[in-house]
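Q: Hi! First time asking for a complex rather than a single chain. Here are the components, and I think there are two in total. Is that enough to go on?
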Amino acid sequence: AQSVTQPDARVTVSEGASLQLRCKYSYSATPYLFWYVQYPRQGLQLLLKYYSGDPVVQGVNGFEAEFSKSNSSFHLRKASVHWSDSAVYFCALIGGYGGSGNKLIFGTGTLLSVKP
Amino acid sequence: NTKITQSPRYLILGRANKSLECEQHLGHNAMYWYKQSAEKPPELMFLYNLKQLIRNETVPSRFIPECPDSSKLLLHISAVDPEDSAVYFCASSPWDWANTGQLYFGEGSKLTVL
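A: Yes, that's all I need. Here is the structure of the assembled complex.
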């Protein structure tokens, strides 16, 4: 069965510090992987995606993620966080394809709080 | 994202009937309803492609989707239950969006059941 695990429900970092949000997935092959951000009272916005190629993918606003097949992981990183990065971050994979369309399966999310 | 508009944004109901509306101006063929309960991730409810219902993710029968055209999606709700309190997101995409990541979400309609 396909699943996504985000082990950290909450992460607090100081502004300017580096960040890593963890994501582990379970899938029989290499899945399409995504990171989304959700700001308060808003819908989800795509940060970055991965399917193949360079395991380090760049996204918007200085975010990047690294895919590891051996660890079944897709961790999100940022070198220096800003207070405006405070939001909920969801890792997701596509768990259904073809004629039934692409169904996203989300992890439970990580609430990031950036202290000034 | 002003290209996917949802209405109403906030909704408080007793056991009344109501409909949520969504319209996208992105030219996408696929439209979705997701439910996000408090402090939970979004969960897919329905997926339409070219006005045809493709996925129904075992949603209670009091939720009835309707797709009158490819740019509009409705969610009719009857006799709501307190467990229905959530934010309902509309989303749209090209049919096969995996490679491009082109799945876009509206800002949601927050339903509170009294």
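A: Chain A touches chain B at residues 32, 34, 41-46, 49, 51, 90, 92, 94, 96-97, 99-104, 106-109 (CB under 8 Å). Let me know if you'd like any chain examined more closely.
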